[in-house]
Design brief:
Chain lengths: ~400, ~260
């Protein structure tokens, strides 16, 4: 038995690391400061094939599995969490639902550009009144002749307002199920559709270079064939997307923790206090040792979940592994940024050092794609506990 | 058409590089090797030509077993196949011997329309092999090319000098060395990494090329390294403390060093 990734994955890691260091790292602080979404860099990520890692080969993808995507997200996230989440959302929320549930026509229309990074798609699930409680979706889609007419609002939608955004898949109530619950369906809404309004970008604590908007649907009319998959399948579709997404977010958290190890080791070797580098003090060195344990443990949980997914393990097993990885990696990332900031002392509070940016970026990891509480709920239920 | 890109596996230029104590050849054991960065521009040039039409790209290297990694990187970037000349007798070969061996390999590969090389290796840095190759094969050679196009059996090149840019064209087959200004080499994609595993790599010995081992290698080299001296550590510069005459003293220093 081995706990190593394959040679090909490690070689790919080296390539993404080179790319991230050369093309992203030198600009990350500026993009963050200016809240700038770097369109050209996103296109370059597309040329490297990052958006197509899990997509079918017939649409230009590599059909390479979740593990390869996690490697890419980890290495991008190690220098810039904003670009890491841009990649994660583009693949997990933009491409995957269309690739998994789309009709031949839908895939043909949307995937080639999305896979190549010439376009981005978003997934509109969260609403002002419903986040983790997605069954409470209030957005409605009503069938009118050959169209769906959509009314409602979505919140916190990543990649929804960039100049590359070609479409947003939104969940909406399309009727009632036999048991009286809301029937939820997913519908692809092309960018530029009348009545589909991208509201001004949020002013966020972190992820400043990531594009996030509220969306308003005011009688937005799309052809009936824009329904994604079967009517009423929306709930199951996004639940499946979330399991993969949680593993990918865990990989982003691993990148964050590793960045904190790197930054802390470098700083503790450079910075002196009382005549010697601060890394000679056990109070500092031991904290950094703990960061390395977090990085290792989070990485192992993350790639175990990805490997289970790639091996075609039962969805229940993937769900538990994904929840454990997401919970541990993201809570560790928040802790790691706190520790690294402390190691940096006053400089850790200055934007001059990347740890300050990572400190702001980390918190959302515990919230997006299912909060820590939701992960604990999944894990507790997996143990058979009668938790509500 | 068939394009051969010459690639070299060199010690990582960002690491501490040393020479072997015994024979003063490059020490390849204590340092990571990689594809010479300047050769990536040649591969990218070859792939760009191939992207635009029907062309096969072969990566050719000469070097010990580790040099297979240079071929692998070229294949991951998109080259179709590789040829690796490896023979213990090649250890310590100088540029003339290298050019002779590569020429023999190019003849063996056969029907080559265009040979692309980097402007220098990042270890030896002599930049002479392309011209020597052209002599052996009796082909045209255009060096230090910043832009080129291939059309109708002709390669049209722009060569940027210090004071002027020259337009040079040559009939194919030809040997063209490209500068680091010509393009932005692509990164291998995951697909490229996976595909490279299945691409053919042929390994050739000197016997395969009908070359007498006694005519290559350190013993047959036309130049001999007698001695290697480590470059002295850089000393701290002179510090001028401004006491109202800082500007004058800086100019005096620069004048003394003949900078102004």
């Amino acid at each position: 038995m081995t706990f190593e990734l394959s040679d090909e994955h490690e070689e790919f890691r080296g390539v993404v690391r080179d790319f991230a260091r050369a093309e992203i790292a030198p600009h990350a602080a500026q993009w963050d400061r200016e809240h700038l979404f770097p369109v050209d860099t996103v296109r370059a990520m597309g040329e490297l094939g990052l958006f197509g890692l899990t997509a079918p080969e017939e649409y230009g993808g590599a059909a390479a599995g979740l593990t390869s995507l996690c490697v890419a997200i980890e290495e991008i996230g190690r220098v810039d969490q904003s670009m890491g989440i841009t990649l994660e959302a583009a693949v997990g929320l933009g491409i995957a639902p269309i690739a998994n549930y789309g009709t031949q026509e839908q895939k043909q229309r949307w995937l080639p550009d999305l896979v190549a990074g010439r376009a981005l798609a978003a997934f509109g699930l969260t609403e002002p009144g419903s986040g983790s409680d997605a069954a409470a979706t209030a957005t409605r889609a009503v069938r009118d002749g050959d169209s769906w007419v959509i009314d409602g609002a979505k919140q916190f939608i990543t990649n929804s307002g960039t100049e590359l955004t070609s479409c947003v898949t939104v969940t909406a109530r399309t009727g009632l199920n036999a048991d009286g619950s809301a029937e939820i369906s997913s519908i692809i809404v092309p960018a530029g559709t009348d009545g589909f309004i991208v509201e001004p970008a949020y002013d966020k604590l972190g992820w400043h270079a990531s594009d996030t908007h509220p969306l308003t649907f005011d009688g937005a009319r799309v052809p009936a064939d824009h329904l994604l998959g079967r009517q009423g399948a929306g709930f199951a579709q996004f639940l499946a997307a979330l399991d993969d997404g949680r593993v990918a977010i865990a990989a982003l958290a691993v990148g964050c923790i590793q960045a904190m190890v790197d930054a802390s080791v470098a700083y503790a070797g450079d910075r002196s206090a009382f005549g010697t580098p601060i890394g000679t003090k056990q109070g500092v060195a031991f904290q950094i040792a703990d960061l390395q344990v977090m990085a290792d443990a989070a990485r192992l949980l993350t790639y175990r979940a990805a490997a289970l997914r790639d091996a075609g393990a039962p969805q229940d097993q993937v769900k538990q592994a994904a929840a454990a990885a997401k919970l541990y990696a993201t809570e560790s990332a928040v802790a790691a940024t706190r520790t690294a900031t402390q190691v940096h002392g006053g400089y850790g509070f200055m934007e001059e050092y990347p740890v300050a940016r990572f400190y702001r970026d980390a918190k959302i990891l515990e919230i997006g794609e299912g909060t820590s509480e939701i992960q604990r709920l999944i894990l507790a239920r997996g143990l058979g506990l009668p938790v509500e | 058409m068939k394009i051969v890109a010459l690639v070299k596996h060199v010690p990582d230029a960002t690491a501490e590089r040393t020479f072997d104590d015994a024979d003063h050849t490059t020490d390849r054991t204590g340092v990571d090797g990689l594809l010479s960065e300047l050769d990536e521009y040649a591969i990218e040039s070859a792939l760009t030509v191939a992207d635009g039409g029907d062309a096969e790209v072969v990566a050719l290297t000469m070097g010990p077993s580790g040099a297979a990694d240079a071929i692998k990187k070229a294949l991951q970037m998109g080259a179709d196949s590789g040829v690796h000349i490896s023979d213990d007798a090649l250890h310590g070969s100088d540029a003339p011997a290298t050019a002779r061996v590569l020429a023999a390999a190019l003849r063996r590969i056969g029907d080559v329309d265009l040979v692309l090389t980097g402007m220098a290796s990042t270890d030896g840095g002599m930049s002479v092999v392309p011209a020597m190759l052209a002599e052996h094969l009796d082909l045209a050679h255009v060096g230090f090319v910043g832009e080129f196009s291939v059309d109708d059996g002709t390669v049209r090149c722009r060569r940027d000098g210090d004071t002027a840019s020259e337009s040079v064209e040559a009939a194919l087959p030809a040997i063209v060395s490209v500068t680091d200004q010509i393009n932005e080499p692509r990164y291998p994609s995951f697909k490229g990494i996976m595909a490279a595993k299945k691409k053919p790599v042929e390994t050739l010995s000197l016997a395969d090329l009908d070359i007498d081992p006694s005519t290559v290698g350190l013993a047959a080299a036309t130049s001999v390294v007698d001695e290697v001296t480590k470059r002295p550590e850089r000393t701290q510069g002179e510090i001028v403390t401004d006491e109202g005459d800082g500007g004058t003293r800086l100019v005096e220093y620069l004048a003394a060093q003949k900078f102004v």
